[in-house]
Design a protein that fits this description.
The complex is a heterotrimer of chains A (about 500), B (about 290) and C (about 325). Chain B has helices at about 1-15, 20-50, 70-80, 85-115, 120-135, 135-145, 150-160, 170-175, 200-225, 230-235, 245-255, 260-290, and strands at about 55, 60-65. Chain B is about 65% helix and about 0% strand. Classes of the chains: A alpha+beta (about 500), B mainly alpha (about 290), C mainly alpha (about 325). At the B-C interface, α2, α5, α6, α7 and α9 of B face α1, α2, α5, α6 and α7 of C.
């Protein structure tokens, strides 16, 4: 075949070009340093706080602030109210809002031209964009003093002190702060409170109580759980919570440092595997009784419809579960829903008084607010400072019930009688949980291995759906196999994954 | 100067080209050739070059690691030992038997009958044409919700008396159900009313063989390019390793700049793996009847 | 070639007529079985749309209760409420563009973008395909064999993995998110249309051109005044095939022209946005509204489209 010979020549020619082009440089050795100051001043008592003196609008050369935001998740009402209030507080300043359902596709190009000053969205590749110099370094913002605590020796309460620790920990890359965490949330179990009340079922506190509740529900002829097969990650809310409960804060965080391969070795680091086993024993082994038949083939849309129509009592939940059900849909159907914080497993860590320590894992807390390097940085930074002030941070939950920004809130204010921040029992439960939790993690890591997607908390995928679909078959997937495979993968590749 | 002019003249004479013809050729071929040089030669050579680099966070740029075949070794290792990635290859390869082994022969038979005296053949022609002209997002949405546990497919099965309809969670296989009948094949039917006997193998197939081979090649290529059905069926590319295809993996990660060198190596490697099979398939098909030239 | 083909066809027709006359019972049964299968297949293609149609008239609550009630949502709405359709066509918008050029686009606007994009790219692609095909078929020049080989190889050997590089390149030369950028990505002149037109031009005798040359026509004149007009049916069928492809393409406009969402892209954005409010009946109305123009065009030009696709799809 003459053609293929000619083709081979062409291909060879094309292949030869890059050899001569030599477009990429030689490897530069160096430290990939992520160390950043995560210390925070005490913010437990706000009684003596005095607000900073805000600069006047005249001190800003450019008085127009352009903000674009993803309007899918939490809508735009909160930002519109903030914009109006901000304009009132800084007469002469104008805030221009641009809601969009896709920030990311054009983000890199836009940052180079900078039509906007602030971008708010999920999934922003802020580490890369920041390192490329397209995002403003917000370290100055994080260190700026917002309040002075006169009751505590005029201690400066900085922007960084006002953020919850998990939000502070997931905002820096290579020693610089590039983003502000838009929201914080927690997971657990969403339940049909109306159904619970009608049947007299109690909200479970422990793993054993959850199992007993499932039995009660089954004997009442109802189905305890429902989940869309395609949304397997929802189980993370339970499994990761159990993992943190068993491991404790330090051991859990050790894995995310990404510098010790033994964290994937179940013999040395058993916490994750134990948590997974708890999940497997409760749900996989009882899937025919505890889960809605055919849930493996359910779409998220259908699962939500089924839950609204009372086909099951509970679903594993993330912070945005209620938003996804549709708040007005829940109201239209006429049911109330609540949040069950992940029940404690027997091995969960306890405090010195013998009470279980409340912890939570949050898959929703990764939304970002970033400032364009070429944008109106001064005014943008001022807007973020203003946003962190107590009364303004509350504008968010007022418009998006049950959800908080990355700042610290006073739980009593949120869950007070006739609180404007709570519409459903879910909202109240969520605020209580966030207030109680002594440790919250977004599972974010600044380790290169995580950013490069070489490792993850599940090195071989989460396998939840596979566990269900293969159960009772010759291809049955055991917890042992999942974690042994994962360890083999990490152990076998660890050295090749390193940078040098 | 004189010399080159003389040479030019010689070439023009050899090819019998007038000045007008040279101008004509240059003007009309300029854009296509430049386009080809950029999008194929330049972009692909850049892709090849990039595939030998790695993102270095220290300088925030792509650099050549000590082991220049780092990405290739990584992917070969993954394809051999990691089912998350080998399943991408298998899923893609699955489209070969689906498009070439099922859809194509069925379409040939289908097109044949469509031009026989089948009652309502014009109606069928229109209906069967629909999947070719409707947006994939609409098609997949309608199919996906249909095959849901609560969907109408199982509802119909129950209606027909099947008590325990199956759970359709492996939706990739379902996209075969949406396969489009290649409209080019309707040509088969132009040979109105031949019976399905020896005439078919001796006359009809040889006549449309070039089309079948072309469609076969295109069908083989879908191994590397198909993703939309799976993408819309599964919602997003991320995390769905077990249902992903080659193109879907690329589509799901193209904007992640740290991954670009890995992705380039991944795509090139996939081409290297599948192209010999595509050529082999063509050769075998050509062997049956006659050499097909374009 | 043409003459022998005609002969063959005449023979086949005769054979067919004879066979139809002496069709056996077995053959009749086979035909009816085939007919049954065809009906089933047609129904399987239509049911999804019937399902979309029925549910697009329902309210959110009615839909949500309906789908889980056991009939899979295949039930008539309590009342046919057309407000979803008004909302789908006019009311519901997605926000696109950035800075000063940011604006809201509804489905009508998306149709505009789709038409603009499809018409311009189809015109350019058909023109350049015809030009390259004509030159490669009728002229002999240095490098021709090389170009031909490269084109074939590039078509048969799909190199995947260049998407990220292309994306970066388009950004670098400033064509990302512009209409010319999408033209550049789409229009090559060496694609499927090239093969099609090349075969066609090879079949046109050069004597036409020679006659014109004697009359003093230039090379451009021959191409534009004689060859192109002679090829209108082929150009038309190529245009239809190409246009359908462009109209339905999702990836290219999604990646390279996000600020001008075509129907295929915008529909995806719309559905994602509607999912946040769980208003699925509205989503279904959007989908149906989006396919109506295609169906109308198809219904009007059904004969032309099918026969042209057929005529162009093969060279025999």
């Amino acid at each position: 075949m003459k053609l293929s010979k000619l083709g081979a020549c062409v291909l060879a020619g094309v292949m030869a070009i890059p050899v001569f082009a030599g477009c990429a440089g030689k490897w530069t050795e160096g430290d990939f340093n992520n160390d950043v100051d995560l210390n925070q001043n005490d913010t437990s008592d706000r009684s003596g706080w005095v607000l900073r003196e805000r600069p006047s609008a005249d001190s800003f050369a450019d008085k127009d602030l352009y903000i674009t935001y993803f309007n899918g998740g939490y809508g735009g009402a909160w930002l519109e109210e903030m914009a109006t209030t901000f304009e009132a507080d800084y007469p002469g300043v104008r805030v221009h809002l641009n809601p969009t359902n896709d920030v990311n596709t054009t983000l890199e190009v836009e940052l180079e031209e900078s039509p906007y000053d602030i971008y708010i969205s999920q999934d922003i590749a802020w580490e890369y964009l920041g390192a490329r110099g397209l995002l403003a370094d917000l370290t100055g913002l994080y260190d700026s003093v917002i309040y002075t605590d006169t009751a505590n020796g005029d201690l400066g309460i900085r922007f960084r002190d006002l953020l919850v620790p998990a939000s502070l920990a997931c905002s820096s890359y290579q020693g610089k702060y590039y983003k502000v965490a838009q929201i914080q949330g927690a997971g657990g179990i969403i339940y049909n409170k109306t159904m619970f009340d009608q049947n007299g079922w109690q909200v479970p506190e422990t793993y054993e109580q959850l199992q007993a509740l499932c039995e009660t529900i089954v004997s009442a002829g109802k189905v305890p759980f429902l989940v869309a097969g395609s949304e397997g990650y929802l189980w993370d809310s339970l499994v990761h919570d159990w993992w943190i409960q068993i491991a404790g804060q330090e051991e859990f965080s050790r894995l995310y440092a990404g510098n010790d391969k033994e964290c994937w070795n179940p013999a040395v680091y058993p916490y994750h595997k134990k948590a997974y086993q708890y999940w497997y024993d409760l749900f996989v082994r009882n899937k025919d009784r505890y889960l809605y038949p055919g849930f493996e083939g359910l779409d998220n849309l259908m699962a939500n419809s089924a839950f609204l129509n009372g086909l099951a009592a509970m679903m594993p939940a993330t912070a945005w579960s209620l938003n996804e059900l549709g708040k007005d849909m829940v109201a239209e159907v006429g049911i109330d829903v609540g949040l069950i914080p992940t029940p404690y497993v027997p091995e969960a860590k306890k405090d010195e008084n013998g009470n279980f320590i409340r912890v939570c894992y949050d898959v929703a807390g990764r939304d970002s607010i970033v400032v364009a390097e070429k944008g109106n940085k001064d005014l943008a930074t001022e807007f973020l400072k203003w946003m962190s002030e107590t009364e303004h941070a509350l504008i968010f939950p007022k418009n998006v019930s049950g959800t908080l920004m990355g700042f610290k809130y006073e739980t009593e204010t949120l869950i007070a009688e006739n609180s404007p921040y709570c519409e459903f029992t879910w909202d109240r439960d969520m605020f209580k949980l966030l207030g109680e939790a002594s440790f919250r993690s977004t599972g974010y890591s600044t380790s290169y291995l995580f950013i490069d997607k070489k490792v993850a908390d599940y090195p071989l995928g989460n396998k939840y759906l596979d566990c269900f679909t293969n159960y009772g078959k010759p291809t049955e997937l055991t917890v042992n196999k999942i974690f042994d495979d994962a360890w083999n993968e990490v152990n076998g590749h660890w050295d090749s994954w390193q940078l040098v | 100067m004189e010399k080159t002019k003389g040479k030019e003249h010689k070439i023009r004479r050899r090819y019998n080209l007038s000045v007008g013809a040279v101008v004509f050729i240059c003007v009309l071929l300029a854009y296509p050739v430049i386009h080809f040089l950029i999008t194929w030669v330049y972009i692909n050579s850049q892709t090849i070059a990039l595939s030998f680099t790695r993102y270095n966070p220290v300088v925030n740029d792509y650099q050549i690691p000590n082991d220049i075949f780092y990405n290739y070794k990584m992917w070969i290792d993954r394809f051999l030992h990691d089912e998350r990635y080998s399943s991408i290859l298998w899923n893609s390869a699955l489209y070969v038997p689906v498009t070439c082994g099922i859809t194509l022969p069925l379409s040939v038979v289908c097109s044949y009958f469509l031009y026989k005296d089948l009652p309502g053949k014009n109606f069928f022609k229109v209906i069967y044409f629909l999947p070719s002209i409707l947006p994939v997002v609409v098609l997949t949405m309608a199919f996906r919700l249909g095959f849901d546990t609560f969907g109408y497919v199982n509802a119909l099965l129950r209606f027909m008396g099947i008590q325990n309809p199956p759970i359709w969670y492996n939706v990739v296989l379902l996209s075969g159900a949406m396969a489009r009948i290649p409209q080019e094949l309707v040509e088969v039917g132009r040979l109105e009313g031949i019976n399905f006997t020896q005439e078919m193998t001796k006359v009809v197939i040889p006549l449309v063989w070039p089309t079948i081979v072309t469609l076969f090649t295109v069908g083989m290529n879908t191994v590397l390019t198909i993703y939309l059905q799976a993408y819309f069926l599964m919602g997003s590319a991320e995390g769905n390793f077990n249902t992903g295809t080659v193109a879907m993996y690329l589509f799901g990660n193209y904007s992640n700049q740290q991954q670009v060198p890995q992705l380039a190596a991944f795509g090139l490697l996939c081409s290297v793996i599948f192209v010999p099979f595509i050529f082999l398939g063509r050769r075998i098909m050509n062997h049956f009847f006659r050499e097909v030239d374009y | 070639m043409d003459a022998s083909k005609r002969e063959l066809r005449a023979r086949l027709k005769k054979v067919a007529r004879e066979q139809r006359e002496k069709r056996t019972t077995v053959q009749k049964v086979v035909l009816w079985v085939v007919f049954g299968i065809f009906v089933l297949y047609a129904v399987s293609l239509l049911i999804p749309f019937l399902w979309l149609l029925l549910n697009s008239f329902k309210t959110r609550l009615e839909f949500s209760a309906g789908v889980v009630s056991g009939n899979g949502g295949l039930s008539f709405p309590k009342e046919f409420d057309i407000s979803n359709y008004y909302e789908a066509l006019i009311g519901f918008r997605v926000r696109v563009g950035s800075g000063e050029s940011a604006r809201n686009v509804n489905l009508l606007g998306m149709f505009g973008y789709s038409i603009l994009l499809t018409a311009t790219t189809t015109f350019l692609e058909v023109f350049f395909s015809a030009a390259t095909a004509y030159i490669m078929a009728k002229y002999n020049f240095p490098g021709k064999g090389f170009i031909f080989a490269m084109v074939l190889i590039s078509m048969v050997v799909p190199i995947v993995g260049s998407l990220p590089v292309m994306y970066r390149f388009m950004g670098k030369i400033g064509l990302r998110n512009t209409l010319p950028g999408v033209w550049f990505v789409y229009v090559s002149g060496f694609g499927f249309g090239f093969l099609l037109m090349n075969a066609h031009f090879k079949g046109i005798p050069w004597t036409y051109a020679e006659a014109a040359q004697i009359d003093g026509a230039s090379h451009f004149g021959i191409f534009f005044r004689i060859m192109l007009p002679m090829s209108v049916p082929q150009l038309l069928s190529l245009a239809i095939i190409t246009a359908i492809g462009y109209w339905n393409d999702y990836a290219t406009p999604k990646i390279y022209l996000p600020s001008m969402p075509t129907v295929a892209v915008g529909l995806d954005s719309l559905t994602k946005e509607i999912q946040k409010t769980s208003d699925y009946p509205l989503m279904f109305s959007c989908m149906l509204v989006a396919i109506v123009p295609i169906l109308v065009v198809f219904a009007c030009f059904q004969k032309v489209i099918i026969s042209n696709v057929v005529a162009g799809g093969i060279k025999g």
